[in-house]
Amino acid sequence: MDTKRYKIVDQPIAIDELIDKVTRPEAGAITTFIGTVREWTKGKRTIYLQYEAYIPMAIKMMEQIGHEITEKWPNTEIAITHRIGRLEITDIAVVIAVSSPHREAAYHANQYAIERIKQIVPIWKKEHWENGETWIGDQLEQIPYHDPWPTNEGGI
């Protein structure tokens, strides 16, 4: 079994593998967040998304999020996998699994994780609509990016 808790992949995400990474006898709760590609965004019909990442920094930032979570919610465990490449409608883009002794910490830590991913992890998406396409930029959609797009360094 792959024990890496923070990954960027270019293939479908195996949800059970993330759950296995955080399963432990002292955990009475495991929460998962599964982010999927939706069809409609702000009134525009999405055909597919293209995700890109600066992989070494993305992994480093996911690890930072993990450290923040264990400081805020002691005795929690977390695993995060984000997919890059072309994703179709309903494809899974991100999975977060959190375990803790009690459900409240697991819920809060999971929500914290997805918000921090959007804030600090260098992953970008290009939305392809029926009538055009555009790089959205950061995941909070506050910083636009323009072509030409930088090349991906670090590989998968």
Automatic annotation (TrEMBL):
Pfam families: MoaE. Its EC number is 2.8.1.12. It catalyses: 2 [molybdopterin-synthase sulfur-carrier protein]-C-terminal-Gly-aminoethanethioate + cyclic pyranopterin phosphate + H2O = molybdopterin + 2 [molybdopterin-synthase sulfur-carrier protein]-C-terminal Gly-Gly + 2 H(+). One of its GO terms (biological process) is Mo-molybdopterin cofactor biosynthetic process. Keywords: Molybdenum cofactor biosynthesis, Transferase. The keyword Coiled coil does not apply. It comes from the Bacteria. Pathway: Cofactor biosynthesis; molybdopterin biosynthesis. This is Molybdopterin synthase catalytic subunit. It comes from Niallia circulans (Bacillus circulans).
